[in-house]
Amino acid sequence: MVTAKLFSAFVAIASLVDCGVNAFDDNAARSKAVYQVVTDRFALTDASASPTCDTEDRVYCGGTWKGTEEKLDYIKGMGFDTVWISPIVQNINTTKNKLGEAYHGYWTQNIDVLNSHFGTESDLKSLVTTAHSKDMYIMVDVVSMMCLSRLI
Q: How far is Cα 45 from Cα 41, in angstroms, rounded to an integer?
């Protein structure tokens, strides 16, 4: 039962990107050069600079999917063909506490809603479409254990 619900959740996330889902088999995955980014820390929407907040504060710094899209040529120029982004789903929206905010994307609250701190559904689709146009892939981090209680 849980496995079927998890699979449905993954399909629902994949369906957000209306340009097709390309999955790797084991052999294809081994040949990919993967560049991992923490979306919030990587690139601002205007891509003119990296976020400049004090990371020790553990708060959102403003990195977005649009910013990542603007950096695809930079990433490809380093020899990478796959970008692994932070989890895309809505996270617990906390005020600052000793653990900070969920800028990393690993405190899943709702798997049916995107993390608005990273951008819109259109921004995510644009990132994927642009990556594919450059013969690149986007790999989405999925944290299934963090939302398991919702699925049972």
A: 11
